[in-house]
Amino acid sequence: MTCCGYCALSLVLVLVLVLVVLGAVNSVPMAIEIDIAHVARLSRLGIPEEELAAYGEQLEVILEHAAAVQGADTEGVKPTAHPLGITNAFRQDEVRPSLDRAAVLEQGPDTTDEYFRVPPAMETE
Amino acid sequence: MSAADLSIAEAQAQLASGALSSVELTEAVLARASMTEAQLHSFLHIDHAGARAAAEAADSKIADGTGGSLAGIPIALKDNMVTEGIETTCSSKTLSGWVPPYDGALSQAMKAADAVMVGKTNLAEFAMGSSTENSAFGTSRNPWDTDRVPGGSSGGSAVAVTIGSALGSFGSDTGGSIRQPASLCGIVGMKPTYGLVSRFGLIAFASSLDQIGPFSRTVQDSVSLLEAAAGPDKMDATSYKGAYPNFGGSLGKGVSGLRIGVVKEFGGEGQEAGVTARFDATVAALEAAGAEVLEVSLPHAKYSVSTYYLIAPAECSANLARFDGVRYGLRVDGETVEDMMRKTRAEGFGPEVTRRILLGTYALSAGY
After folding, report:
1. pLDDT above 80: residue A22
2. CATH number for the domain running over B3-229
3. What is the pLDDT of residue A88?
4. pLDDT confidence of residue A21
5. Which residue of A120, B116, B155, B341 pairs with B54 in a disulfide if CB–CB is 3.0 to 4.6 A?
6. Residue A45's closest chain B neighbor by CA?
């Protein structure tokens, strides 16, 4: 089956239109939804259930504001990790004294002999 | 006039001539603190005994002619700077009672300069906040009007210098934490170029932005403090390794011929009329003094707050992971190690720190 070419052209036009519309939608700040319980778990923060929702709402407001960076035109801008162009610093791999072990352990909340002591890493039956 | 009201340069002249001793100066500063602390709360900890001992030692060095660049000058350090044998808390319940077994680079530098460390100043918890209200150990107040905040996060350091409880102090600046409280208290504060002052022993908030800098009552004093603090340090991989300039080289030379850029994107919406009037008057004064003032544009300035709220919390969430109840500070018991960490961190961090850790964790985990 042959095609006159206008079809293809109009298809391209429709595609362009769809992309333009999508682009417009993208530039409007989108509501951000956060699984706050999951984020709190990743953060190792045992926030009480009744406070979690409030944190979630606050985060969503901040993130919607922060999403403004997506409006920045970064075309032709080189990625910048740090404005000062800091490079890695190397040193000789030499043994040198560290802090006194007893002095460090003294500040630990629970220690035994030469170690910090913590509860079991795995749940016990 | 009390010796507590002298600038560092004035005090140095009197110390050198013998008109004043460091012990006298230190007593004047301690007396000022005991008179004002109940209202202002600039300190979390005042080291009376340590300050007096350091002042005596400085006096004998000054007499010998072997004193360092800040010999006998009472200074204060923000309580996110590690000081050996002196409690360091970051204004957080998390670190309450932690007595560091080592000195950070700044504390070492101040000892090397023979400065007298008066105490550790209040801050917004972990340096997060612009008013010093969210310290776990009480709010600092602005000496000009105690109904107002001194700014933050280095509020205590700004207040101590403003009121004369120290002749100079140091704060840390991540997103304005020196410059803003200095401005709100009417003193000199600067955030030096990143890397000039070692961050070794500065308890990290956002490592790519954190920088230590001075508070003082004069620009000249700011130079003296910065000169004593700046320098390469192998304990800080981001420390600047090139040549250090003569920071005071332009002092007293005026502004004639200087070109000063006024950023057109700053100010405007949200800025109080009084601030705008002050700003414009300052620009006019600089122009009258011979500076060339021109408008410059930072087209991406409008994204700076949004960018800060992604970068700073992301780095904070990683940096504050170390406060897990294992090696120092608070621990709340739990069934498992993870349970202990969750309970400890929920109990130890205040709401603003918690919010930023959550925000940073989300920013770093979104899409995974």
Report:
1. no
2. 3.90.1300.10
3. 80
4. 40
5. B116
6. B342
CA-to-CA distance for B207 and B209, rounded, in angstroms?
5
Q: Do B359 and A36 touch (CB under 8 A)?
A: no
CA atoms of B66 and B168, how far apart (whole Å): 21
In Å, how far is B340's CA from the nearest CA of chain A? 7
**What does pLDDT average to over chain B?**
96
Supply the range of the domain harboring residue A13: 9-71
The answer to whether A105 touches A111, Cβ cutoff 8 Å, is yes
Tell me, yes or no, if B78 is annotated catalytic. yes
B347 Cα to chain A: minimum distance (Å):
8
Residue of A62, A101, A114 to mutate when probing chain B, most B C-beta within 10 A: A62
How many domains does the structure of chain A reveal? 1
In this structure, is residue A29 part of a structural domain?
Answer: yes
A58 in a domain, yes or no?
A: yes
Which of B194, B324, B337 is the closest to A121 by Cβ? Answer: B337
Task: Record the pTM.
Answer: 0.91
Whole-number Å distance between alpha carbons of B169 and B80: 13
Assess whether pLDDT exceeds 60 at residue B340: yes
Listed in order, strand segments (DSSP E) in chain B are 43-46, 74-78, 116-121, 168-173, 188-189, 211-216, 259-263, 292-296
Q: Which residues of B touch A99 (CB under 8 A)?
A: 101-102
| Measured distance CA(A82)–CA(B231) in Å, rounded | 20
**CB B358, CB A55: distance < 8 Å:** yes
What percent of chain B is modeled with pLDDT above 70? 100
Q: Do B339 and A121 touch (CB under 8 A)?
A: no
> Is residue A50 domain-resident?
yes
Give yes or no: B177 in active site: yes
Given the residues B21, B78, B169, B317, the one annotated as active site: B78
The residues near B359 (Cβ < 8 Å, ≥ 6 apart) are A59, A62, A63, B309, B313, B317
Split at pLDDT 50, 70, 90, the class of B300 is confident
In a domain, A4, yes or no: no
Distance from the Cα of A23 to chain B's closest Cα (Å) equals: 20
* Minimal-distance CA residue of chain A relative to B232: A89
